[in-house]
Structure formats: C-alpha cells, structure tokens
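As the work plan foresaw, the team has encoded backbone shapes as discrete tokens. One protein thus recorded appears below exactly as we store it.

:::
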Amino acid sequence: MANSNSSRSGSVPSTARYGFSDASRAGDQLRRVGWWSDTGPGESEPIVAALSRTPDPDLALLSLDRIREAVGSGWVELSRSLGGDIGLRGRLFGVLGDSTAFADHLVANPGDWHRLRSDTVQPSTLQERTAVLLASVGADGDGVPGTGGGPVAKLHGPEAVSALRSTYRGLLLDVAGNDMASVAEPSLPTLPYESVAANLSDVAVAALRAALSVAVAELQRSGVDEVPRLAVIAMGKCGGRELNYVSDVDVVFVAHSESEIPAATRLASLMMRVAGPAFFEVDAALRPEGKAGALVRTLDGHLSYYRRWARTWEFQALLKARPVAGDEELGDRYLEAVQPLVWTAAEREGFVVDVRSMRRRVEEHVPSELVERELKLGRGGLRDVEFAVQLLQMVHGRSDGSLRSKSTLDALLALGDGGYVARADAADLVDSYRFLRTVEHRLQLRQLRRTHLFPPFDDADALTVLARAVGLRSSGRNTAAQALVGEFRRHGNRVRRLHEKLFYRPLLEAVAKVPTAALRLTTSAAVERLAALGYTSPEGALRHIGALTSGMSRRASIQGTLLPMLLDLLANTPDPDGGLLAYRKVSEALAETPWYLRLLRDEGVVAERLAQLLGTSKLVPELLVRAPEVLRLLSDTSALAERDPMEAAVSLRSAVARYSEPQRAVSAARSLRRHELLRIACGDLLGLMEPTTVFGALSNIWVAVLESALDVAVRDVASRSDGEIPARIAVIGMGRLGGNELGYGSDADVMFVCEPVGEADERSAVRFATSVVEQVRRLLGAPSQDPPLEVDIDLRPEGRQGALVRTLDSYLTYYRRWGEAWEAQALLRARAVAGDRDLGERFCHAIDPVRYPEGGLDEGKVREIRRIKARVDSERLPRGADPATHTKLGRGGLADVEWTLQLLQLQHAHAFPELRTTSTVTGLRAAAAVGVMETGDADELIEAWTLAMRVRNAVMLVRGKPDDQLPKHTWELSAVAAALGYPAGVDTGEVVDDYLRVTRHARAVVERVFYGS
C-alpha cells in the first residue's frame, strides 16, 4: 500500500507535464487503461502525447475511461489499435477532447469507435449516407426516397426514430472525427471549414430523405395509397451547403397540384415529426406568409405569392434555395421558376434600404449583455458577412452569373475575382468567416447543442479549451485564452469594418436603380437605352463603353460593374456624352494607378461626385489626369472643401524651397498649384464652398506661387553674382489679386518694389531686382497645360514703357509729380502679397495719401474718371460681345460695380477709414455702413458682383478656358447653371433672366451713384 502511494505521488509531476489539470486523477485513469506505469507512459507515450494535445485532456481521458468500461473485453483491441493507428488516435481523441455528447454516443454505441479506424471506409457521398440511414429503418429499393415507388421504411414510430437518431449520430461522428483529427495528431491533414460544412449539409440532406421515407410509410399505414408528389426545398445554410453541427434546417414544401395539397401537407408534417426527435428541427417558417401561411403550396401558389406579396427578405432567403428531397423534377421546376424573381428583386423600390433595415432589426434583437459574445447575430458576427455578401450578390448578380452561388465563401471569392470587392477585402472576410464558423463548430461540438455564444471573457478554462480546439496553442493556460479573445475581437472588428464598408456603400443603391434589363442589353437595345437616357450620340457612347470594358482583365470587370451606374449618373448631368468621353480619358490616363478603380467601386460618393464633375466641366478632367490624388478627397468633404488656404500656401512654399534648380522648383510649384486648383474647382462645382472662400483660396494659391517663384529667382540670380543679394524685393498685388478676389482664369496684376540692402547702391539694387523679376516672369510664363500663370505688371508707373522695378522713393516721386486719377484708382487695391513683408507694408502705407487723397476728389477728377469709364465701356468691349451678358464690361458687371466703389473710396476714404479696404464686397458694406451709399444699393451691387464673378468662374470650369461672356449654347448654359447650383433640368432661360435682372438692378445703382444720373 505504501509502495502504491509512493508510485502515485511520484506520477503527479509526470502526468502534469502532459497537460492534465488533475495530475493525480489522470495518473489513476492512465493506469486503469494501461497507458502508465511507475516509470511513465513507456510504449504508450504516443497515445499520452496525443491526449495531451486535445482541447481538454482531462475530458478526453475521462471519456476513454467510460468507453473502456462500455466496451469491456473489446478494450484490448481498441487500446492496441490506438497504439498503431495514428488516424484512429487523432479522430477519436480529437472528438473526445472536445465533445461530451460524442462520448455519450460512444458509451451507448461502443462499437462505433470502429468507424474512426483508418481502414474503415466511411460513407462519404450523399447517396452513400442516404443509403445508410434508409437501411437503419429497413427501407430498400432504387427509387427516390419519399416518392411513389421509392424505398419505404419498415420501422415506424419510436423504433424508427431511435434507429435514425443513432445512425445519424454515427454519421456526424464520422465528420467530427475527420474535422478534429489534426488537433490531436498534427501530422494528419486539416479539414477546411468548407469541407466540414459541406459534409454536415450532405448528412442533413440524407437525414431529410430518410425521414421522408419513414413519413411515406406512416402515410401509407394511415390508408393513403397514392403518395403525393412533394418537393422539399432546403433554404438557409443547408441550401448553401454550409450547415453547422447543430442547427435547424430551413425548408419550403412544394406540392405538384392543388388536389394533392391535403395529402402532401400531411406527408410534410409527418416528415417534420420524424426529423425533430431523430435529427434536428425542420423549420418551414420561410414559406410564404411564414408560420401563418399554408405549410404546402403548389408551384403556381408560390409564384403567385412571390410576384404579388413577397417582401425583400424573402427573395434574399431564396438565394440559397436548393431542392434536396422528394420529387426531383418538381424541385428543379421550382428552382428554375423562382430564380428570375431572385435576380430582379434588386429593382424593387427601396430594395437596398430594406435589406439594411432587416440587418439592423436582427442586430437589435440581441440582448445588450450578450452582443459582444454573439458569434452569429452580433456586430462583427457571421450575419454581417452573410448580409453584405447577399446584398452584393443580388445587386450585381443580375448581370453576372458567376456571383449566383449559394455558398457564402464561394460568392465572396467570386465577388473578389470579379472586381466587385477588393481582393484584399474578400480575402480578409473569407479568413474571418472561416475563423468564426470554426469557433461556432467547436462550441456546438461540446454538447451537440445549438449555440452561437462565445464563452465569457473571464472564463479562462472554457476559453483555453476552445482556443486549443481551434488550433491556438500556448505555453500558459491563461495565455491561450487571451490569444483566443484577441483573435475573436480582431476578426469581429475586421468583419464589422468591412461589413460597413461594403454593406453601406452608396454604389449599391446606385447600381440597384439600374433596371436589370439594362445590365444585359444587346447592341441595338443599348443604343436605344443610351438615347433614352439623354446621350446625343449613343453610338459614340457605346464605343467608349466597349473600350472601357473590353478584354478579360480585372480592370475591365470593375469597369463593367461601375458603368451601368455611371451611365445613369452622367445622364443627369448637362453633358452626358462629354462626361463619358472625359471618364474614358481619365480612366485610360490612370489605367496603371492601382487605387483608381478601387476607389470608385468602394467609395460610392466618389463615383457620384466624379460623374457630376465630368458631366459639367472640361477643366476638371484636364487637371485630374495630372493631379489624380485629388480623387481621394472626393470622399472626404472636409478635406476637399474646408482646408485652410494658408495651410495650402505654406505647404506649397515649403515643397518648392527644397529645390535649388529653378525649373524643378517651379515645376513643383505648378504641381501643387494644380492640385489645389483642382481641389477648389471640385469643391466649388459640388456646391461645398462659398463664393468668397473660392475667391480667397484661388488668390492665396497664386500668392504662394509668386512667393515661391520670387524666392527661387532671388537665389538663382544671386548664385550668378557671387551669391550676394543687394536688394530687398516686395511684390504688391493689384486688381483682383490685391482684393483677394481672383477667379480661375485671372492673371496676377502686380508691381515690384525694391530697396538696397546694406552698403549696396540704388542702381545695383534695381539692376538685381530687375533680373529677379524677369526670371520670375520667365519661369511662370513658360508654356504649360495648366491654366496660365501670367504675371501682369502693366499697372506700374508709365505702363509698359516704365521700369519693371522701382524703389519706394521712385514710386512716390512719380505718383506725386505725374500720377493720374486712374493710377490713384488702381492703387486702391494695392496690397503687399509676397517678398519682403516690411517693405511691402511701408509701400502701402506710403501711398495712402495718393489713393485716399485729403479732401477727396475735385469735380474735375470725378469727371475724368467717369469719362475714362465711359471710354472703357465703348472701346474695350470685344467685337460682337453682348453688353447685357458680358460679366466684366457689360451693364451691371464687374467693372461697373468696382468703379462705383472705387469712386466712393477716392471721394470719402480720407474721412472714413472703414473704406480703406482692397475687397470689393467689404468696401461696399463699409460704404453703406458710413452712409455714403444706401444699404439697398450696396446689396444690389454686392449681389451683381458676386453673381458676375461666379458666372465668370463657372464659364471657365465648363469650357476649360476663360471667357467673360455668358454662353449662348444650350448645353454650355445648362452646365453653367449646374455649376451655379441650379437644380437639374432648370430652364436655361431662367438662368439668363436671373442674370439680366440682377445686373439690371445693379446698373441702375451705377447710373445713380457713379454717373450721378
């Protein structure tokens, strides 16, 4: 007895090394089964090692001890087989280490361990499994089970149910053994989730057929001689061949004729009563009208319901419909009849919204305390994957048969291959779905109960067993649990992120609105549809479509997905044909840009906004092919339209400062200006930016370019003259640049002022500054595909005949001695914009007496200004221009408003400092505030000036080149209207009338205030 205790106590540390939590008990059990001695496992070491690798070694060993007692003398054979058959060892131990339910089955059916031997040929096909189940109830014959002439069960009642239950559990044991084998014996092949789910689905279908055979026998015993023709349609996971170990099996029943419905209903009810206690619950709640509806209908009855009354979720359920039992011909006809309804369901009004609402309702039913642990219905759970995949299938599968798979994973892979989903996203979802389904299988194996609930996060024991069951190993008990929780959360977060990305992408709603027939048009039908959409050249549009979608490349596939939606979006723009051509050019230019098509597909708002831009503007596509990165901003309104203009200017200057070579520096400046110009244009056209914000942003980017070019030129000229910089230079903005009111096509009116530095003389300073200015003009004036960067210095003293640069004293001398009224007027908008800030501010302060003359203007100078304005009106208006709609020089246009304000400033700014501003709008408001203009008059002028500026900008955006004339062509006027924010389809005459009304009112103010009429 003492020796026994000593041996027992000596075994404790040894068995503990094999992962048994109760080492003493494990030692006793291992001795009883003959795998442990005083010296350890000995020749049984491979067996004990396999036990140690199971999810729960203690459970596996306890179950083996129970089986030992159940098999009695057969234990010797079983033990010997375990020692020599690695396959048996892996399958049996893998199951026993995770499932108390299968341990109970093996104790009740001791001989079933033979099923798991490597030399046992397991039934592996649907037909073989069906035959085994039919044989268990004495049914034989060659016909289809459950039909007239098919095999009929000899057993009935509880006896049949018991036989079926035991045989079914044996078939499940086959699947579970193969599924778990590699957990205990890593050298055995790992069965992928898809194979396990497919095998479980086949076992379930075989069970349905056997239950139907028993039900036929019961029906015949009740006196019904003729077996009704009944088809059993699997739905849900069974239909998709992705069933769990424990699950209800969703079905729909179809009868051949109305006269057979009573008998068919009885047969279906009998089948369900057999299947429930024998296998699983058969759930027919997905039938028309649900549980309130008839259990069995004819095919016509089903179709009548689906065509008239079915809701969106019912078509979603039909995605996985598959005939599995009963009358095969009737089942095939049912599937053939309902498929067209499934693949046109996306056309239903509010289809996408309905599917999304259904998912939210499902999620809301999960108790809040369980939502984080709910594998199936919770956030980031299996339903998130399935709903996203099914929605994508139903929208895109209308035109692409490759997506019409009943399997979630097959559909996901097809969506990735077809370009409907990014390959990386599809791969991530496949990986996460497999992980979650594997966890679900392992949880259900434990007691063969239907559960989708992850263990509590603080239950280390349950988590460790589950972690080992799914293949997560670690050296510490808690570490495995923590690793599992970390993986569970990682996959859940990834699923939720991708679910929201795919399930809520606007592209789905846009594509769903395209009629199914339009996705599969013949050439002639396509021409008719394009014409109906508003394309003036349908044949040309068809050529563009063909060029974009030709070939078998992934790029062509994604284009094929996008184009039906894009064609509809472009049809709602002023120029669908031009927009489609622009889209083709942009797509061809960005063909090698890997993220371009992914962005359009995954970010629906980008596709919608791009279509609006391309169908409205010629400038945007020209800039886009050279600044494609702006496309990314279309999905982010704040980044697109709310960027601080000063931030953009600083970024541009910093980037240019890195280059010492002038051409490269200016090239960098052009690139950043192009990016910023396109960003502003997009925000403007999409109605996301206020007009004053647009004017200011365009002015700031021009100033940044000037600043950068000046800095580069100074360094370059200095490098060619011993590195000395003998002068400070300031750039004075004039005209609309000075007023911070530039448009897309505006030149930069400037003057340059300099002063000597240190001991340098004035002549050297001017000579150096002149070289710098010439370099600036040369660099910025170089030919470019972008809107030009013209530096206009004609407002300098003596105009084109005058010096390019003067010192501050030289400017003041000129203005005091020779300055004319119009030059003082021009100086009203002078503002230091670049270069030496102190010098620029001193210049502006020094010219204040010139532009804000003490005492205002005498009557002679007022008449002179009015005379000059009248001459400008008559001489500078282009030949053939319409003065009523010329935005710059026309009646009530920009010049009218600006000259009116400037006259008031010359007259009154000396007395009212509020008028000393370079901004037109600010100046007009100040004029009203100080009482030199009526508030109503100021409002009229501000409205007219803002409208003229906006129209001028809109014309530039629409035509791609500057023009001061309101267009006359209908499509151009429609595009201008769209750019101005008018609703789609507005009468272009209304746009012209609005412009004429506003400018007419402004002209009346000008006549009264400026001309004194």
